Amino acid sequence: MTLGLPQRAGALPPPTPAGDATDATLIGESLADPDRFAGLFDRHADEIHRYVARRLDDVTTADDVTAETFLVAFRKRARYDLGRADARPWLYGIASNLISGHRRSETRRLKALARQAPERAAGFEDRSAERVTADRLRPALAAALAGLGSAERDLLLLVAWADLTYEEAAQALGIPIGTVRSRLSRTRTKIRRSLESHR
Which of these, 26, 24, 28, lies nearest to 78 by C-alpha position? Predict the structure, then answer.
């Protein structure tokens, strides 16, 4: 509803309420009003932080990588494709690139997990069969992940842990959808072989 007041020529329209705005709207509005970018941070920072912390197993480093992810996104926001309403794949792509700076520590952590003996169930009735199986597979899975190349691991974890679709993972990593499909197929085969060899 308008109050009938004349608008100045060239005046910006009022900002969309953050809860109603798409990510693209917030990014677009942040070009004129940088404070609007805070809505994107509020919306996605916890999710990005959980993903990074899971990858690096270090909350302090995850804090730094998450903050840097949004700083890089803020600096590059003018290049964001405003036709993409959801900025999650873009943010995950930035986070994945930043994680690559910590690749050695991620691989060391996975190798350390692989050397751990599987946990023994205290009482079967206290834990479900699925949980017991998952605990026993953890070292073998860590070894399998450590054996993957960085591009394979990034793609697999974006799909498995961040729940990105193939299309979103392609967007996050800047690769064609066909590459996503073929790389995931090869990666799953490697994981399966590695797990079979640990039986």
Answer: 28
